[in-house]
Recover the amino acids of this structure.
């Protein structure tokens, strides 16, 4: 089956860490279908240096139509984001109409990537599947309600990663009858337990340090600076914080090692240098970083009142109020000072290895895509 993927969140040699969860899934799907990926690329990203070693093996045909981005700002009443979205949509449409083979089905990752493909889907009556794993639905600006209504009318099926996503989509006007819940998953061949002391040594960290790990953008929603404030409260010189990511900034301190974004294949050794993984996030669809940490058998501290509650329980980690510095600090201290509790969580995580398999998820999605294409 000829499958076209629409996603502006896809890695490249210049941004190897971008959209790796999309990349991993698409590579698995390529075992079942002929896949073309349309990944619109912002012109200014051409100024970035290419990453030596690339982002990984590529089994699909990838098109990267260029467009100029005006970012997403309000300037003197003007919405520059609207200009950027318009130019991205034009770039995607140009690429679609130039495809050598008409697709049997189109799969868009997130609503923001579905909208640029809408006119092509309508004109050619092609089955349209959307994967929705957004942490929220900021795409639903009031001026885009007509677009979203049209999208809802022309969508064949939606893959949701959590009940939170399903509810958010229903609120936007999409029918629950065309939704299937398939949570995000992890590649257990890549993410697995490794020798911790060796991994710490590779990062230049003493094996005597208690390593608190964070992976994600350095933004308020993800909460790395709340981790920093919590560690400051503890005032424990044996604690080392390692933050992997970008987009934002970290509060200056003398106990944090900051690592810029890296390709997905380099992450397992970093995860395995962590004694615990901490993510005081305010909202998620279904967090890929948590699944990766779990696969490496790293106990997790994360957030009450979010979809994370479906990923972590008291046997594998600790759930806290993500805005409470005191609760974050208390949870870190507990897992540092009670190694028996930490070891118990690690053992429980080992028993769960394989539960959220990327291969199984790809098989489910492949079957759904094939069925949808036949029925439409």
């Amino acid at each position: 089956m000829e499958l076209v993927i629409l996603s502006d969140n896809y890695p490249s040699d210049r941004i190897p860490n971008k959209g790796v969860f999309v990349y991993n899934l698409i590579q698995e799907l390529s075992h079942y279908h002929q896949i073309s990926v349309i990944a619109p690329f912002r012109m200014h990203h051409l100024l970035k240096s290419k990453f030596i070693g690339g982002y990984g093996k590529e089994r699909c045909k990838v098109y990267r139509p260029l467009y100029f981005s005006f970012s997403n700002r309000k300037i003197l009443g003007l919405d520059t984001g609207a200009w950027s979205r318009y130019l991205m949509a034009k770039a995607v449409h140009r690429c679609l109409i130039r495809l050598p083979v008409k697709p049997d089905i189109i799969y868009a990752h997130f609503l923001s990537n579905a909208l640029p493909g809408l006119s092509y889907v309508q004109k050619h009556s092609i089955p349209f599947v959307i994967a929705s794993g957004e942490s929220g639905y900021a795409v639903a600006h009031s001026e885009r309600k007509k677009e979203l209504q049209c999208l809802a009318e022309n969508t064949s099926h939606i893959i949701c990663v959590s009940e939170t996503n399903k509810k958010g989509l229903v609120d936007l006007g999409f029918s629950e009858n065309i939704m299937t819940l398939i949570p995000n998953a992890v590649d257990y061949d890549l993410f697995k337990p490794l020798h911790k002391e060796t991994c710490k040594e590779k990062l230049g960290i003493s094996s005597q340090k208690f390593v608190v790990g964070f992976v994600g953008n350095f933004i308020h929603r993800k909460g790395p600076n709340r981790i920093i404030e919590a560690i400051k409260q503890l005032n424990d010189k044996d604690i080392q914080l390692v933050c992997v990511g970008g987009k934002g900034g970290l509060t200056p301190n003398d106990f944090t090692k900051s690592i810029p974004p890296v390709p997905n294949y380099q992450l397992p050794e970093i995860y395995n240098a962590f004694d615990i993984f901490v993510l005081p996030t305010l909202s998620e669809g279904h967090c890929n970083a948590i699944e990766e940490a779990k696969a490496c058998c790293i106990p997790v501290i994360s957030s009450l009142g979010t979809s994370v509650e479906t990923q972590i329980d008291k046997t594998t980690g600790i759930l806290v109020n993500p805005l409470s510095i005191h609760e974050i600090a208390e949870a870190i201290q507990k897992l540092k000072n009670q190694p028996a509790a930490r070891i118990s969580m690690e053992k429980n995580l080992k028993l769960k290895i394989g539960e959220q398999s990327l291969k199984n998820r790809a098989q489910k999605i492949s079957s759904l895509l094939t069925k949808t294409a036949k029925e439409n």
Observations:
- The chain has a mean pLDDT of 93.
- The radius of gyration is 21 Å.
- Residues 340 and 346 are 10 Å apart (CA to CA).
- DSSP finds 13 helices and 17 strands in the chain.
